Amino acid sequence: MLLVIRHVAAEHLGWFAQCLDQWSIAYRYLDTYREPVPTVPPSEVRALMVLGGPMSANDAVDHIQRELKLLERALKDELPVFGVCLGAQLIAKALGARVYRNPVPEIGWAPIRLTPEGRSDPLFELVRDGEPVFHWHEETFELPEQAIWLAYSDDCRHQAFRWGTATYGLQFHIEVTPEMIADWSSEAPQAASIDPDAHAMRMRALSAGLLSRWLRLAGFEAPVG
């Protein structure tokens, strides 16, 4: 089973859910802000996914602290972990790296650039250098010790990293559907000009390709055909 940590209802799996369904992978949302203890037996969890959210990895609230402890245990046990936005920041913090305010907020479509390691990384084979992806964050992270730096943008140095063989943190979003973007933008006046459909089909294909590669690295069996 894939355990998916969700911080708010609006930041869900998006396009990723289609990929998981195609792979026939069972997954369960864990809403840490209202579930003190996971009800899934640890022995059934094969990998973790940590989604985004409007809070900070530095917040001294119970559910963030519980989540960090859960991530520390998972990383110590070498469980594959995939984090998006806040999820990437939480992975970095669980690995001992600093999470801090980015020099400027990144909101909307903007390109990412690949490092040399990113261009040769198995997860990023389909990612083009200069690929427009969706951003929605005010904080970022330092690179954790022993992590491999994979991507950056003009306004944010650390956009993606790999730690070990199957743990990844992505500051940007590729899982967002047009409906998700429209929903988020409706609550933020500064996002009124964002076109939710601008790169929708590319994000759908990219999310499936990237997640499929991570699922293989995480030890899940690929669908036949």
Explain this structure to me?
- The chain has a single domain, classed as Class I glutamine amidotransferase (GATase) domain (Rossmann fold).
- 28% of the residues lie in helices and 26% in strands.
- The protein has six helices and nine strands, in the order E-H-E-E-H-E-H-E-H-E-E-E-E-H-H.
- It has a nine-stranded mixed beta sheet with strand order 2-1-3-4-9-8-7-5-6.
- The chain starts with a strand and ends in an 8-residue tail after the last helix.
Beta-strand percent range: 25-35%
Decide which structural class fits the backbone.
Answer: alpha/beta
What is the rounded Rg?
Answer: 16 Å
Distance between the termini: 22 Å
Distinctive features:
single chain; 225 residues; alpha/beta; Rossmann fold; nine-stranded mixed β-sheet; globular
In short:
With 225 residues, the protein is an alpha/beta fold. Helix content is 28%, strand content 26%. The protein has a single domain, classed as Rossmann fold.
Furnish the topology, listing elements before pairings.
Elements: E1 2-6, H1 15-22, E2 27-31, E3 47-50, H2 62-76, E4 81-84, H3 86-94, E5 99-114, H4 116-119, E6 131-141, E7 148-152, E8 160-163, E9 167-170, H5 178-186, H6 200-217
Parallel strand pairs: 1-2, 1-3, 3-4, 4-9
Antiparallel strand pairs: 5-6, 5-7, 7-8, 8-9
Helix pairs in contact: 1-6, 2-3
